Amino acid sequence: MEFFNRAKVVRLKSHLGKYLVADDDEKTVRQSRNGSSKKARWMVEMVQGNPHLIHLRSCNDKYLSASEDAFLLGMTGKRVLQALPGSATDGLIEWEPIKEGYQVKLRTRGGKFLRANGATPPWRNSVTHDLPHRTATQDWVLWDVDVIDISVLDSESLQSYPSTLSSFSSFAEDDFTDYSNIRLSVSEIPSCPSISSDRSSCSSSRQNGMEFFDRAEAVRLQSHLGKYLLADEDEQTVRQSRNGSSHRARWTVELIAGKNNLIRLKSCYGLYLTATEQPFLLGMTGKKVLQALSTKNMDGSIEWEPIKEGFHVKLRTNEGKYLRANGATPPWRNSITHDVPNRTATLDWVMWGVEVVDITISATTESVSRCLSPVSSFNSVLDDYTTSPDTGSPNVVNYQSKRSMNTPMKKVL
Asked: Which top-rank group of organisms is this from (predicted)?
């Protein structure tokens, strides 16, 4: 439930990198890559009397409902529709979120799960509720949760500031009194103040892509294929992997003094993401991206300029090329290069979702400033619970000051 406890509106992204959307017919639902559409937004409503259940309301003011209609005759999957609440449908519109790592499964009253189908039509882009009977379909019931609107009750001693994007990842955990009843609304909150002496405020002078990284200590980067940028164990190469929970998928963000629009990304091995001059394959335009130590001769090659593209970011080298996640057959599969997308079909290959997994915050005596960083595929959660084993709902903590004021605080998600 920590995915939804303070969320007003969310987006749900399937294992295929597509979003759950409500169709214009106000009845059916499906998957779509257009996550910016209002049809991909679902309002979260808590179920009275049962804190472990939620309702999800579409832009058509109808609820996500696990119907009893078979999707195809002879198949186990049943339809998921939009429906109005009523005595006959109350149980059908209730969903129980179950945490699975950085993702969530949504279970129906009948014990089945919201499932995003792939394969050929009519299954392609369809959404059903079913049980994953095969290992190959276990991921089909896992969803990433992007929180795009949260609301916080007014508190004179507490100010919360989202970034200019509407997706957020985390709250600070220190120097707070109990805020279990806090709610925050995007439309009611001003821009973000400075959060540490070495990180500037939400500066308009920066390239708009910098808002993804301004307050981030560490991030994960997710490609158009739903895979994460990973530092290989050989401490040299990088690649894509679906294992986003690995420490090798975490990249420390370093802001560059005097260069407000550039960043460096440091791997778990203390090496920097580097755009080399080595061709990935002879005769091809793409060049290798590696992990490397910082030297005076290569400072430019470890610097990346974030450029915002909707909910995603492009990372540009000093030569004007972009960090690119390749698909297709080996040796291209899962490889990373830097290149210019010359064809329309490869434009998405340089787009990356940014998941903030570590932030830094500083506190003052009269007010505490919280900065929430954006996520694109926000598989990130809003955490206000201890590190005890997950029991299905968070353990709310009463935070009391244990540090001197103006001491930077760091939280790892």
From this structure: Eukaryota
